[in-house]
Write a structure and sequence with these properties.
The complex is a heterodimer of chains A (135) and B (309).
Chain A lengths: L5 H51 L1 H12 L10 E4 L3 E10 H13 L3 E9 L4 E9 L1
Antiparallel strand pairs in A: 1-2, 2-4, 3-4
Chain B lengths: L2 H4 L4 E4 L12 E5 L4 E6 L6 H5 L2 H5 L9 E7 L2 E7 L1 H10 L7 E6 H5 L5 E3 L4 E6 L2 E6 L6 E3 L11 E2 L10 H42 L6 H29 L8 E8 L2 E7 L5 H11 L5 E5 L2 E7 L1
Parallel strand pairs in B: 1-2, 2-6, 7-10
Antiparallel strand pairs in B: 3-5, 4-5, 6-11, 7-8, 8-9, 12-13, 13-15, 14-15
The chains are: A alpha+beta (135), B alpha+beta (309).
Chain lengths: 135, 309
């Protein structure tokens, strides 16, 4: 019985086939999981990048707000600005309703994170105004 | 007679009528002529491997029905060719107490014993005898000279054969075809395995690139938490704008004025002045029709609403 028995070869090959099938099945599962993880990362990255660009970019928010505040229609409102590390506080003791309407339209149409707001009617034409925007 | 060869020996002479062997370890087996068919022939080929393909046809007419294996070796210019039944030999061995795992080498008596000049007694009545250069079994009484078979003095040739345990079930061709199929299958599975590993690596690398390209935090947990925070913020800001729009769209009576709009601690407070004679209920009704949830407080001529953001 010096020659290797073909049946022994078959058993060996069969064992190897079963072993690699098992390993293949395992890595296929890993591939599926990795694929799902990749898709989740892509989706999360897309959502996160979009929202971060809108709300988390301090410089962009600042520049945009500066452009709104520099408009001539707001010059008479004597808007006060107080900049902190986390945001900006804007206030005016008395503001014309047309100016206020124009200003609020621009703020609401922009992507600012308004955390506090107080508009109090003073008369038919004026109101006091205070707003905190965070970045 | 057989008891002579059967005790703790490393070589046995196997005949259909042998007694049970007491084997310890592996043994060499010499097959009796009763367990094979033999011919001495001249063939138009030079090598044994060329002769092997001709063997089935050379025995075709003389073999009884059965599943045979064939073997051959060359002696000078002629060939000794053999036909034997693996199952018959293995069954005989098993019936004599020898398992297949105890078999070391299997030889034909023809190749190991035929050069004896006198008869070789294998039991009380039969002897091995060489006639026309072919070893045969014959009654001992027919021979003038007989000597006892001594297995201990044998120097084995290289003409051993391998017994196939399942040759009666499947032939060699089927086995090798099956081996081929399994090998191909194994190679395909292995290739698929390595391709899959490569794909996993590629996806993992692409994922890392998404992280670095988008400046994500190092763990998904941190990123999910950050995204949740941004989403909440976005929802709140959307509601601020939506509620403000709905509040400014309210159709107020002439004497009713919106006197205060205040956002603080995620609560939107709104105050209307001059609400009387049921005008506050119209405001509340209109806001409810827009599915805005709020709490209302009515005091004198003012109505205060609180909306959770």
């Amino acid at each position: 019985m010096n020659r290797m028995n073909p049946l022994h070869i078959i058993i060996l090959l069969f064992a190897l086939v079963v072993f690699f099938m098992f390993k293949l099945n395992s890595v296929k599962g890993e591939l599926k999981s990795e694929g799902l993880s990749y898709k989740e990362t892509l989706s999360l990255a897309s959502d996160l990048t979009g929202l971060r660009d809108v709300y988390g970019d301090k410089n962009s928010v600042k520049q945009s707000l500066e452009r709104v505040l520099s408009q001539s229609s707001l010059k008479q409102a004597e808007m006060k600005k107080k900049i902190t590390s986390s945001g900006i506080i804007l206030s005016s003791e008395s503001m014309d309703k047309v100016e206020l309407n124009s200003f609020m339209s621009k703020i609401f149409n922009g992507s600012y994170n308004i955390t506090a707001l107080k508009i109090k009617r003073l008369s038919d034409k004026t109101a006091s105004f205070q707003m905190e925007i965070k970045w | 007679m057989f008891s002579k060869f059967s005790k703790q020996t490393s070589t046995i002479f196997l005949d259909k009528e042998s007694g049970v062997f007491d084997i310890d370890g592996r043994v060499d087996i010499i097959l009796s002529p009763s367990l094979y068919w033999v011919k001495k022939v001249s063939l138009p080929v030079k090598y044994v491997r060329e002769a092997k393909s001709l063997l089935p046809s050379l025995f075709e007419e003389i073999l009884p029905e059965g599943i045979y294996s064939y073997s051959a070796y060359k002696s000078e210019e002629e060939f000794y060719i053999f036909a034997y039944e693996d199952k018959l030999i293995l069954d005989t061995l098993a019936s004599k107490g020898v398992t297949s795992s105890q078999i070391r080498n299997v030889y034909f008596a023809q190749s190991e014993l035929f050069s004896q000049e006198s008869g070789l007694k294998i039991d009380e009545s039969r002897s091995l005898y060489t006639k026309d250069e072919v070893l045969i079994l014959m009654p001992s009484v027919w021979l003038k000279e007989n000597v006892d078979l001594d297995l201990s003095a044998i120097v084995f040739s290289k003409n051993s054969v391998t017994l196939k345990q399942f040759s009666h079930l499947v032939n060699d061709r089927s086995l090798y075809t099956f081996i081929g199929i399994l090998t191909v299958l194994l190679v395909l599975i292995a290739i698929e395995y390595f391709i899959t590993l490569h794909k996993i690596d590629a996806i993992s690398q692409a994922r890392s690139e998404v992280f670095s390209k988008n400046g994500l935090k190092s763990t998904m947990l941190q990123n999910r938490s950050l995204l949740k925070e941004y989403k909440n913020q976005h929802m709140t800001q959307t509601r601020v704008r939506e509620y403000t729009s709905e509040l400014l769209k309210l159709s107020l009576k002439d004497n009713v004025k919106l006197s205060l709009m205040e956002i603080k601690n995620k609560t939107y407070k709104v105050e209307f002045m001059g609400t009387k004679n049921g005008s506050e209920s119209e405001i509340i009704k209109e806001l409810k029709s827009k599915h805005i949830r709020f709490k209302s407080t009515i005091k004198d001529e003012s109505t205060r609403l609180e909306i959770e953001l």
